[in-house]
Amino acid sequence: MSNIENIVILTGAGISAESGIQTFRDAGGLWEGHRVEQVATPEGFAADPVLVHRFYNLRRAALTTVEPNAAHIALGRLQNVFAGEVTLVTQNVDDLHERGGASRVIHMHGELLSGFCAACSHRWRQAEDLSVETVCPACHTVGGLRPDIVWFGEMPYQMDRIERALRGCDLFVSIGTSGAVYPAAGFVQLAHAYGAQTLELNLEPTQGSAFFSETRNGPATQLVPEWVNSILS
Ligand code: OAD
What we know:
The protein is α/β, with parallel strands linked by helices. It has helices at about 15, 35-40, 40-45, 50-60, 70-80, 95-100, 160-165, 185-195, 220-230; strands at about 5-10, 30, 35, 85-90, 105, 110-115, 125, 145-150, 170-175, 195-200, 215. The chain folds into 2 domains: about 5-20 and about 70-110 and about 155-230, TPP-binding domain (Rossmann fold, 3-Layer(aba) Sandwich), CATH 3.40.50; about 35-65 and about 115-150, SIR2/SIRT2 'Small Domain' (2-Layer Sandwich). The chain contains 9 helices and 11 strands. The radius of gyration is 18 Å and the shape is globular. It binds 2'-O-acetyl adenosine-5-diphosphoribose (OAD).
């Protein structure tokens, strides 16, 4: 792969699997025993905000028990060392890319370590539990706070920026994602239409594999450092 200047990388749950965070599709459609509609939709939050806060509080607290793996660390190194631009887009709401050394991460599905006030749109770093009693640090509204997570039926974050990066990239790499959830699942076709090479690194073939010019199957902790070494050599 020569003459690569701009790389866009999309990661999904598979890159954090070997750190001990369960992927979505492997959990049999349940997240920690809850249906997706209960804990990952605006309607679920409106119906039972206490349950939804508890669900994300547990997931946020669980971040303190996991560590970035060799794949996160390799991408952090790539972003810091590569002479061109590496746009790192993740569907993951964990902070393992940042802890793996990446300094510029686009969290298109939000972040566990962020809070959001639906009343004034203020965002802030949230390391502690949220509850229906939490007060917004900006507008002091009580009860309007939610986890800063993009739920089903909501628009992912920073789509303009992502699309600009896809338009200008020479190489698009998808890592550890099943290609089941749009718009992320469509990035490969966009990148291809804009003239980029496309590479998929995933444990197994996915429903999007046919759209990639090259697919490699195996664990992320093996494939990603190998690929990063080849780009930096
Ligand atoms: P999925 O759970 O759908 O897919 C994870 C992918 O990672 C699968 O294709 C696995 O084969 C692969 N995988 C598992 N272990 C791996 C490993 N060690 N190395 C490499 N690959 C591995 O997760 P996502 O594609 O991230 O959305 O899911 C996309 C979105 O669906 C999530 O962001 C979430 C969910 O609903 C929202 O929350 C909005």
